[in-house]
Amino acid sequence: MFKKFFSKLSKRVGIDLGTSKTILSVQEKGIVMKEPSIVAINNKTDQILAVGEEAQKMIGKNPKFITLAYPLVNGIISDFEVTEKFLKYFIDKLFMENLNLAGRPSVVIGIPLDVTEVEKKAVEDASLSAGAGKVYLVEEIIAAAIGARLPIQDASGSMIVNLGGGKTEIAVISLNGVVNWRSVNVAGKELDNDIVQYARSHFNLLIGHRVAENIKIKIGSAFELKEELKMEMRGRDLISGLPREIIVTDYQIRDAISKSVATLVDYIKATLETTPPELVADIYERGIVLTGGGAQLKGLDQAIAKAAEIPVRVADDPATSTIRGLTTLLDDDQLLKEILLPSANEEKMVR
Ligand SMILES: Nc1ncnc2c1ncn2[C@@H]1O[C@H](COP(=O)(O)OP(=O)(O)OP(=O)(O)O)[C@@H](O)[C@H]1O
Ligand SMILES: [Mg+2]
Fold first, then answer.
1. Pocket of ligand 1, candidates 70, 216, 264: which has the most ligand atoms within 8 Å of its Cβ, to mutate?
2. Ligand 1 pocket at CB < 6 A
3. pTM higher than 0.90 for the full model?
4. Tens digits of per-residue pLDDT, 58-71?
5. d(Cα 219, Cα 229) in Å, to the nearest integer?
6. What are the residue ranges of CATH 3.30.420.40 in the chain?
7. Which CATH superfamily is domain 188-256 in?
């Protein structure tokens, strides 16, 4: 009786639990929190020292007794306890900031396409022990498609490519379901690694991953730009051991990430090649839609369009497509029901 009462009052919370970033939204308010997916832990006491942005500031500056832990690797929970603590931090903060929230919140959370039952259960269990009353699992890519306002309910093919930090998912969606898909661990972080490697092999320069990411965001591209872009690259000279700064161009960065971009294009082409022809015809008409933070790479749409000979467009504000889709689901019981994944944990769920 009480449980029912509370679940009626309790708010629903959308969680885009990402490799790079985690975003929370609540009914009526929309996005309420956005933090990098990082936790700083004191090894001596096992206590959490910082979460999100505060933890990110410690990267590369931490003494040995502080570990910087990433809850997810390539979109999959890599450390259950860290993820649980990470989610608990968010849910507790939500309650502190929204005193009108009652009961344990119901959580709608996106998961990758290629998760195993064990990995799925880990997301559910981590959410439940972090304070969620009920957990609804949906495929992240479907949420991203809803956020990008693709007509996923129609009997017509839509192709979406969600480029995250740890993985890129490519899916053809029709009638609220994924008809064909591919997933590859080439995404934002891999491009950062490419730039780190390039700096090492071409300039004997050791640079950090955050420096590489910043360069990628500012001057990185997948297709020739109209105007040349340049910026400084700071690191440590591998021969002298001293700090050194050089100037890099968009051309060099394009070269650095070209193999990874080619891999992404190959996966997209392979997905198209194995999609039923009726759906391919729809995709050609509508074009491919890019979502996720990585969709903001300059010229990526042009590079894919040229290689696959198909129109491509970047969704509006692609980095929030997934959370906006999850937010839609908080208020749309019918759609949620249609795309909901079976729980890995039926008996444990609070009803
Ligand atoms: N302007 C930009 N150009 C290129 N890449 C960008 C840009 N802005 C953000 N990114 C990249 O987008 C990635 C993060 O995307 P997103 O927030 O969608 O990932 P995520 O949801 O945390 O990860 P995943 O879905 O893989 O678990 C990062 O690697 C970041 O460097
Ligand atoms: Mg994501």
1. 216
2. 18-21, 72, 75, 164-167, 187-189, 213, 216-217, 220, 292-294, 296-297, 319
3. yes
4. 988 899 999 999 99
5. 6
6. 2-143+321-340, 155-186+263-318
7. ATPase, substrate binding domain, subdomain 4 (3.90.640.10)
User: Measuring CA to CA, how many Å separate 44 from each of 23, 57, 124, 272?
Assistant: 30, 20, 29, 51
Question: Given phi > 0 = left and psi -120 to 50 = alpha, else beta, which region is 175?
Answer: left
Q: How far apart are CA 53 and CA 42, in angstroms?
A: 17
**CATH number for the domain formed by residue range(s) 2-143+321-340:** 3.30.420.40
CATH number of 155-186+263-318: 3.30.420.40
Tens of pLDDT, residues 102-126? 788 999 999 999 999 999 999 999 9
d(CA 313, CA 331) in angstroms, rounded, equals: 28
Residue 22 CA to ligand 2 centre (angstroms): 8
**What atom of ligand 1 comes closest to residue 298's alpha carbon?**
3
Round to the nearest angstrom and report the end-to-end CA distance of the chain: 11
Query: By alpha-carbon position, which residue is closest to atom 5 of ligand 1?
Result: 294
